[in-house]
Amino acid sequence: MAGNSYGTLYRITTFGESHGEALGGIIDGCPSGIQLDLDAIQFEMSRRKPGQSAIVTQRKEPDDVQFLSGIFEGKTTGTPIGFIIPNTNQKSDDYSHIKDNYRPSHADYVYEKKYGIRDYRGGGRSSARETASRVVAGAIAKQMLPQIKFNAYVSSVGPIFMNKAYQELDFSKIESNPVRCPDEEAAIEMEEYIRQIRKEGDTVGGTVSCVIQNVPIGLGEPVFDKLHAELGKAMLSINAVKGFEFGSGFEGVKMKGSEHNDLYNPDGTTQTNRSGGIQGGISNGMDIYFRVAFKPVATLMQKQESLDNQGNITEMTGKGRHDPCVVPRAVPIVEAMAAIVLADFFLLNKTYL
Question: What is the predicted pLDDT for the residue at 2?
Fold first, then answer.
């Protein structure tokens, strides 16, 4: 299986399955001498971990990170940072019913057709549990770039949208509710909706918005390695993501150029920011903001038609512990991938100096 690494200079390679002994990764390219706050890394893991509230999967995993290399006396050494995250709460029997069946809209079918074998326990390598390793790499990337602020939050769940510009939000309220929506009224509606969807044995999708502040001018390359292109790739590599837009996004097509252009101030900043902080693939110093769309989880706790490995259409009902909506737990993953992208471009930029 290829495609287990991301990044050029700051590079993360992940390994492990949902119900294996452990997940883990190797981070290469992290500069030496960075004093790491290990508690801050663990805090990011706790934001992503299962079982943290009543509206997410009830799998109980502490997601404690064990660092194996690359850190000495609390500082990075410049050598590869190896780590593992033990799996401690597997219930593989919950997946015995899909050993010979393929869940609709899940990776089950294509994995088996591509590789001739699949680990059906929790989805194996296709499980969103793989993203735990990304959060470790993202947490370290954030500490490489302490001046840059990453704030992701849930901006919609199903038909419920938070209709406020990010400039109106208090990002300190993101962690004040289990949905991770900084608009308190919208958060209550979203939570109630997720609870209802869960009672029905169904699932629902949503969007995560992200705002990156204090980004220096000059990150990104102007042709194939545009900053927004790499952010798009990073976000679309996250499980269940179906869409990515930055700046004015799809709404921008409704505008005239005279309405859409960001006019300059004398200091090089712009009066508006429909460019989303990126012009010509390069950061312009304004806030970078984008939105990521997540589809509903494929595994339903209700009857639906399925396909077995003999070509028969059969009826199945999901079992086990699954998220009725992934977006609350996706917030730290979106931040992590954004931090990895910017850390990589930050190191690439230094090669010009």
Answer: 85
Measured CA to CA in angstroms, residue 152 lies from 155, 169, 276 at distances of 9, 12, 15
Residue 323, CA distances (Å) to 55, 157, 327 in order: 7, 13, 9
Cβ neighbours of 226 (radius 10 Å): 16
CB 344 within 8 A of CB 30: no
Residue corresponding to tokens 């991938």: 337
CB 184 within 8 A of CB 190: no
Give phi and psi for 331, each to the nearest 5: -55, -55
pLDDT surpasses 60 at 338: yes
Q: How far, in Å, CA of 105 to CA of 115, rounded? A: 18
Q: Are 30 and 144 in contact (CB under 8 A)?
A: yes
In terms of C-beta density within 10 A (0-12 exposed, 13-18 middle, 19 or more buried), how is residue 132 classed?
buried
Q: How far apart are the first and last CA of the chain?
A: 37
| Distance in angstroms (rounded) separating the CA atoms of residues 84 and 86 | 6
Reported as a single tens digit per residue, the pLDDT across 167-196 is 999 999 999 999 999 999 999 999 999 999
Main-chain dihedrals φ then ψ at residue 25, nearest 5 degrees? -170, 170
Q: Which two tokens stand for residue 329?
A: 């737990």
Instruction: Fill in the amino acid letter for 258.
Output: S
Q: What is the mean pLDDT of residues 261-286?
A: 97
Give residue-wise pLDDT tens across range 233-250. Answer: 999 999 999 999 999 999
- Distance set, CA 183 to CA 166, 171, 176 (Å): 10, 9, 10
